[in-house]
Amino acid sequence: MPLRLILSVLTALLLLTGVARAEMPVFHASKGAAISGYDTVAYFTVGKAVRGKPDIAVMWKGAVWLFSTRKNRETFEANPRAYAPQFGGYCAYAMSKGQILGANPEAWRIVDGKLYLIHSFTYMKLWAVDPPQNIVLAGANWPGVLRQ
Length: 148
Prior knowledge:
The strands form two sheets. The protein has a two-stranded antiparallel ribbon with strand order 1-2. The protein has a two-stranded antiparallel sheet with strand order 3-4. The protein is of the alpha+beta class. Helix content is 43%, strand content 18%. It is globular, with a radius of gyration of 18 Å. The chain is built from seven helices and four strands; from the N terminus they run ααββαααββαα. The chain has helices at residues 3-23, 40-45, 70-78, 80-83, 92-96, 121-128, 131-141, and strands at residues 53-60, 63-67, 104-111, 114-118.
C-alpha cells in the first residue's frame, strides 16, 4: 500500500475521531438517569418537572432518559437536542462560575427555547438576576470545565 494512501486513511480516521469527540457531550446522570429520572420533554410541554417512568426510557449520548409518556419519548427521539438540558444537565449557574455541580430537577428555566437546570433554588435566584450573561459565561466554560 503506498505511503500516501496510508497517510490519507490515517488522517481521515483522526478527523472522524475528532468530530465524534466534539459531537459527544457529557450528560450528568445521577441516580442512573439523566435529570435524575425527570422527563425532559415535560418541561416544555406541561411547564413543570415531571418524573419519568423506568419503562418509558431511551438511551442517548451515554445516558438513560426517562419519560412520563410514550408521546414524550417519541418527541425526544425525533429531536433530542431540542429537549436535552444545556451544559450536560449540570447546574447552569455553577457552570457560569467555571464549576461543576449537579442540578435539582425542580430548579429550572427555559430561556430562548433551551432548558437550563440549576443546583438549588438559592442558586436559581442568583442565576435569574442576569440569565443572558450567565448563559454566555457558562457557554465559555462548557465543556472545558469537565477536563479540569
